[in-house]
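Hi C.,

You asked whether I'd gotten around to modeling the 213-residue construct. I have! Everything is below, sequence then structure, no commentary in between.
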Amino acid sequence: MSELRLRYQTVEFNHHDIHVRSLRDNQQFSDPMGIAEDLGISSAQWPLFGVLWDSGVVLAHFMDNYDTHNKRVLEVGCGIGLSSLLLNQRHDDISATDYHPDAAVFLQANTELNHGRDIPFERNDWAEDDSTLGTFDLIIGSDLLYEVEHIPLLSTFINRHANTHCDVIVVDPGRGNHAKFSKAMVALGYRHSQHKPDGFSGQIIQFHRSASS
């Protein structure tokens, strides 16, 4: 990936500084073997996983103040994986997944940059039911609702990997699809609430399901 222009930055949290190697901008592209193209990822879509977006930063700061004690956590569509890196530094039980073939490479590089233990990662297509991830107590993600046709796939994927008692946190920058996603999650038995963080145009949407829901 030597032809890619990279950016190194540090994101500060209450008790941790997370060092991040990301793409310099969303104009970068490198798919010499055509792997991403074979997966249906265009040159315009290719760099989106590797940029540190505001939604990912909002999610990570929200997780910094969230009780994850004794919870198995999954970051869906992790991209650059800022929340995963933070939770890994806190020694939480964190796993990550993304569709992009290079997400794992960047996650591993950033894990090493922060001297952390390896983060379990699985490349997943939400439409496929062959994951070995297992189930989780907490599932998180940011900027996942950019295609309305993905909503049934995402809600089903999350539900497939949710324990009976599970919390789901999704940060959406305001793409206009969160109401449809919330409706799909409610139909699967989740209660939901949402709030707008200061200085952010989108919302943090929280879902909860328990045996009594």
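If it helps when you're writing up: The mean pLDDT is 95.

Thanks,
B.
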